[in-house]
Amino acid sequence: MNPESIYDHSIQHVRFMHIMLFSVMLVLLGSSQVLNAKNKAVLTYNLKYGIIKGGEAKMIITDTVYNGKKAIHYFMEGRTTGVTDRLFRVHNIYESIVDAQTYLPYKAIRNAKEGNYRYYNEVYFFHRNDSIYSEKSGGIKVPPKLLDFLSVFFYFVNQDFIGKTPRGRYIELPVINGHDISIMKIKHDGIQTINTDLGDVASYILMPEVDKGRVLKSSDGLLFYISQNDKVPILFDLDLRLGSLRAVLSSYTINGKEIKSF
What we know:
By secondary structure, the protein is α+β, with helices and mostly antiparallel strands. The chain is built from five helices and 16 strands. It is globular, with a radius of gyration of 18 Å.
């Protein structure tokens, strides 16, 4: 493999790991302990490529008000660190404001900085008439109950698709990422006990359908492990063509109080 090809594969891994890390921290936080927090919940993850730490991500959840209605603000930030940052400099931010009862989004922001690449867009949702306004693409009609890339996983958990759906069956949800609309497929694949610093944790295995390509070895090469009781993400694994990638929960606080066990 020539140097240009190696660089091309590496930068795809860096971008992909942040996109997937955003996914994991979401699927997760369906626990009433987190979503009913009166003020703020913060989760921090370390990202490792093999034995090398390559990045970190933080998820912040706060209660808010949007147009006079109770809402929840999700803020997710992911960035490369150390040597990986000197090489690639990835810094991505996703934000979503959702209705506190339906978990349908009012507003979504994507702000991406990856090397020399820049992307910024704001999207406003009007669910009564199934339409959105995107700063990139203007006003358009969309599928009912359209979700954004950040809110989709909270919606998945809070609608209890894990409990309602048989093991191995995909749930399809319409999602906008940036300004592109597609159907996201997610299934749960049973329960596995995961050994952690907090002890053994019984965890749901969640598996989104992912296109096999230059990054993943197979379409089932991405796994999320979500604690069965609190539905907090324990870890996630990616089986990449050039190695394995793992995101590990390193810190979890609610209103400034550290959570030390599940």
